[in-house]
Write a structure and sequence with these properties.
The chain contains six helices and no strands. It has 148 residues and is mainly α. α2 packs antiparallel against α5, α3 packs antiparallel against α4 and α4 packs antiparallel against α5. The protein has one domain.
Length: 148
């Protein structure tokens, strides 16, 4: 039970670190903020990234229901980010609140997945979080000074 709590804490910390890193980094790519990688740059797309992660994690049959929930959450976040990006590109307002919601949902999904993983798997998930998160966690232009 304590190990599960430690893994959960580590995964949440990794997710929050990723969010902070993405928010304060000066990296500029195409997207509704300045961090989200463009669809062209994401050669694998979210499905490819998840397939590679599943292989790396060696998801066991008992872990499959949690993995299915995790992939559903990741695909949902990817779709929500695409929708928000299109609204912004069409002249819609910046959506810092929605971006924060995406970051929170990402953190929760990582934490829930971390609950069922072995220590080795949790390390792999934590190492993969920045790449996965960069697909749909975006910093608004105003945070990174892109409007300056």
């Amino acid at each position: 039970m304590a190990a599960s709590s430690s893994i959960r804490t580590a995964v949440v910390c990794a997710a929050l670190s990723t969010i902070a890193l993405i928010t304060v980094s000066g990296e500029r790519t195409v997207g509704f903020g300045v961090v989200r990688e463009s669809r062209d740059a994401a050669s694998d797309g979210i499905s490819g990234k998840l397939a590679k992660l599943q292989d790396a994690l060696a998801i066991e049959p008992a872990q499959q229901p949690a993995w299915s929930r995790f992939t559903t959450a990741m695909k949902s976040l990817d779709q929500a980010s695409s929708t928000l990006e299109q609204k912004r590109l069409s002249g819609g307002p910046e959506a810092a609140g929605e971006q924060a919601r995406h970051a929170l949902l990402f953190s929760i999904a990582l934490s829930e997945m971390g609950d069922i993983l072995s220590a080795r798997q949790a390390l792999i998930l934590r190492a993969s979080a920045p790449l996965l998160g960069s697909a749909f966690i975006c910093a608004p232009n105003s945070v990174l000074g892109a409007g300056s």
